[in-house]
Specification:
Shape: elongated
Structural class: mainly alpha
Helix content: 40-55%
Order of helices and strands: HHHH
Oligomer: single chain
Largest sheet: none
Radius of gyration: 33 Å
Number of helices: 4
Number of strands: 0
Amino acid sequence: MAMLKKIGRLFIIKTRLEAWLVIYAIALGAVERGRHYLDTYPGWGGWLLAIACTGVVFLAGGKLLDAVRAPEPALAGATYRVPVQRRIVTGRNRPTRLQNRHGLESRTSRRRD
């Protein structure tokens, strides 16, 4: 069983370079298959199948590159500190609307001409 795990690890794509090599291999196979379709099905049908073969490379390549994580950037000699979340204070110390001596109305609303 341990031998199967060792063999299985050979088929895991770990780096972006390996992902690009697999994409290149898929592209070569897709182009060859597309040429085969052009020979077998002359006309629009062959062209559509050839384009579909090469289009699959873009989908598979995108999935492969998304699946391989980019290396985390190392911080230059410092430990990373998580920013502290500040609590929202909802008490008497929170600023509210300014009140004048006569209540909440503004000076312009109290003006009488």
